[in-house]
Model the fold of this input.
Amino acid sequence: MKKIMLLFLGLLLGLVAWKLWDTTVLLNKQVVSKFEGARWELPARIYARPLDLYVGRPLQVDHLEQELKLLGYRVAADGQLDRAGTYRINGNRVIIHCRSFTFSDGKQEAMLIDLVFAENQIVALEDHNNAQSLPFFKLEPLHIASIYPGDNEDRLLLHIKETPELLIKTLLLVEDKSFYHHWGVRPLAILRALMANLKAGKTVQGGSTLTQQLVKNFFLTNKRSLQRKAKEAIMALLLEYHYSKDDILEAYLNEIYMGQDGKRAIHGFAMAARFYFGRKIDELSAQQIALLVGLSKGASYYNPRKHPQRAKARRDRILHDMADEGLLTAATAEYLQKKPLGVLERVPSGITRYPAFIGLVRQQLKRDYKDTELSSKGLTVFTTFDPVVQEAAETALSSVLSSLEKERKMSPETLQGAVVVSSVDQGEVLAVVGDRFSRQAGFNRALAMQRPLGSVIKPVVYLAALAHPEQYNLLTLLEDTPLTVPIPGTRPWAPKNYDKKFHGRIPLMQALVHSYNVATVRLGLALGLDQTLDTLQHLGISKEIPAYPSLLLGAIELPPIDVLQMYQAIAAGGYKSTLRAILAVTNQQNQLLQRYPLTVEQAMPTEAVFCLNRALREVTRSGTAASLQRRLPHGMSVAGKTGTTDDLRDSWFAGFSGSHVAVAWVGRDDNHSTGLTGASGALRVWAKTMAALTMTPLDDQPPENVDLYRAILEAGTLVDNSCPRGELLPFIRGGVLPPLSFCDAPPPQQRQGQQRRHRATSGFEKALQEGLNQLLRIFQ
Amino acid sequence: MKQLGITGLALLLLLPAAGCVGPRYRRPVYRPTPAPTPGRQSSPRQTARSVAPPPDSGVSRSRPSVQHQTAPRPANQAVARLSSQSDMFAGQGKLKKAAQSLEQGLRIAPKDALLWSKLARIRLLQHRFSQAVALARKSNRLARGNSTLLQRNSAIITQAQNQ
Done:
């Protein structure tokens, strides 16, 4: 009987041992596989352009300070700049202790730089420590968004070597004094805690080691059960068996839950330092370290924003313990205990402030990366985003729309709008605003909206003509007289001008400057619709567009970003650069994965574009956009075109200076009439955006093959250079030239005999007739 | 006959005046000559407006202070440094880095024909021939008649097109 009992006991023990072994093997597999692989899904972090600093850069001291504040830099206390992330402004002199940052082309170490400003320009840039002048310095870029994993955990990976010693010592002091000596569990501590808890009838003491806490967070659920506790102990032992203490501590520093921001969960000390103090981990002061270490016990319970008293009591207790342990002097601890929590009032949101721009970044990233890669691989994305330009565009849109609604007695929030801005020569997208309430991540009008262009398309028609210098120049006479275009199967189309008048025979340039519809349709038909369509395609519009004559007046629908691409090519003298929002992507190890280089393509002959731009410049001086003269800084030359669609539903303005191209749209989401023309709506948004930027004027230098002649615009003739009248207009060498007139020739209306007009335009009329016939053939 | 002669003489004498008092429009007999464009001979780095603006244009009315604000003097030191940095990278065969330095320079001085030309050269070395051609042409567009640069670009275009 005894033998049977022993056998049974043996079997039972064997079974338990086998089960234990089996469980341990299973757990071991879990521990190893998770710890060996990617431990966390790390969000992609998206950065703005860095602010380039160099002698000669136009920059105002307060704009620099604004950027520093956005980056979370602080005014150095008592003028001491011993910590990175601080600055001091002394009149026209600024000293910055710049943080280190790893760019796509390498790491820039933290350093003190010294800047001197004069007349809103940097006039000196030096390394503060050795007074050596620096030719060029990049300030760290602003973090503008992250792409989070499915579990919405946000963390910044922290390596143990980068962790301040005081943080590690304080953490171990509070959470696990014997961390470097135990094997993962402390049976005695567990027993002691068990006794204390039994005595109190509730949990008052925890016996978990740091390793067990990590296991609980990393592998297990929050369920309290004996089985889970056993698993936790086994896994802690396994973890300690396989990995070094530093490895485990590093994992803990990154895994621990430190707070919540809506859906976003804040994990790890590095992210917590940003979340609560806007600082990098190595910039934390002792009382901030104490607060963060205190949070690891219960981030919700000790939430310093919700329960500041609790959080302060815990922090002060830890400061006291730190002094006891010799990490601080008693006097310092006492001094620090009197300090307020110093937590940022405004939570640095995980939700981007710039959803419209990020929309474009994601659209471009999608071509090369899968969603899962973006939300888990810890990629760093460097973009072309310029917070200063964005701010200007956002403010312009929201303020102008509000003013328009007041002036025109519309109910508030009737109007909507979009603004996009890029650099001229590189096509780098600097700002995207897709909603008047720019923080809203709703419908992104800048990218997704399809609206008819109206006259914003006209430069394309005129460019198509000017690309044939043997036939057309800026003074080629066009007919702005009644026209009926037969359209088989439907009523004939009779385009009208906005002012309901016809303007007779006018030079090509004037037809564009005043945006005459009929003259434009006649020109487009004479050229053939395919010419306009081809030009559109060359300028970067890939969308399939049907060849209807109404296309010539902008009856095609495109989003503002596509219009920006068209105008970028025009602004850059016909050299199209595909719009880019991303410059480079690096991986978690800061290795370059991909660069998105500057590309240039000659979309249209530069000579024709130069002539077109002369006319577009005139639009802003004496044409439909003449009001820009009083809306922009005096002397700032720009070029552009207004656009208005049927029933005043869409108001557009697209244009450029020597450095920036921008497109603005104003309309209503319900597509009702706004009562606004391009000039009374979008132009104001455009002007207010551009006026806030540091721009260069248009480049007046003609290409090699273009000559400037003195011309009388209203007569459509050239005059001698010595003539005090007229102005210089560009003409392509070898192309057809306008007729000549004497300097003192009378205004054209006195000599416009019917017969002469007929003769002068007979060639053009013939081409128009051919165009109409061709059109009829297409439709038949 | 005498009367006819007198009338003819009178007509001849009156003819020049006819331009002033008679019908004022008539076809001129001279050939038009283009206005001079002095900027074409200047250095590629020069950013001053080179074409005399028409007297009634907005440009001529511009105040110097605004010009100063809006058209800063070129940041030569930074551009020169980035340009030489690019040369150094190119010399080491680090073409991507060389291009990156040039792109950086172009953000500071987007109208610098020399930088565009150097970028064209890098693209040629990277065997991106159509880019090399487009960039060299863009450089030509900004070269303002700088013959050395024009020659250099033309060599790049020829080499790229021969590939």
About this structure: Chain A touches chain B through 69 residues (CB under 8 Å).
